[in-house]
Amino acid sequence: MEPAEMEAIIRASYAAYAASDRASLEPLIAGDFTFSSPDDPELDRAGYFERCWPNNEHIAAIEIEQLFIEGEEAFVRYRLERVTGESFRNTEFLRVRDGQIVRAEVYYGV
């Protein structure tokens, strides 16, 4: 996959999450998707949509500040603004295969 195509997929996934647009996000997430964060270790696709997706209701905006791609992997640093006005940064390590995100590892302080 070309880096520009991979970047488009990643940016579309963050935009869909920020817009609470699950219909746009679902085709970007692979059937064998896995998700990991300090609070949610090793969720499968269904677990991600059950535990993490509802948080989109609290998001006002997501701004990707850095995006580095190498092969099928990407590192993303973004600033997230909540509807309350609070903002913070997260980093994510993503793996994309065949036009879909197959792995997301979220890193933040706890």
What does this structure look like?
The protein is an alpha+beta fold and 110 residues long. It has one domain (3-107): Nuclear Transport Factor 2, Chain: A. Helices cover 25% and strands 46% of the residues. The chain has three helices and six strands. It has helices spanning 3-18, 22-25, 45-51, and strands at 29-36, 43-44, 59-70, 73-82, 87-97, 100-107. The chain has a six-stranded mixed beta sheet. Strand 4 and strand 5 form a beta hairpin.
Question: What is the structure about, briefly put?
Answer:
With 110 residues, this protein is α+β, with helices and mostly antiparallel strands.
Helix/strand layout:
Blueprint: H1 3-18, H2 22-25, E1 29-36, E2 43-44, H3 45-51, E3 59-70, E4 73-82, E5 87-97, E6 100-107
Parallel strand pairs: 1-6
Antiparallel strand pairs: 1-2, 3-4, 4-5, 5-6
Name given to the CATH architecture: Roll
What percentage of the residues does DSSP assign to strands (E)? over 45%
Number of contiguous helices: 3
Overall tally of domains: 1
Structural class: alpha+beta
Number of strands: 6
Instruction: State the share of residues found in helices, binned by percent.
Output: 10-25%
Order of helices and strands: HHEEHEEEE
CATH topology call: Nuclear Transport Factor 2, Chain: A
Q: Which regions have little confidence, pLDDT < 50, spanning 5+ residues?
A: none
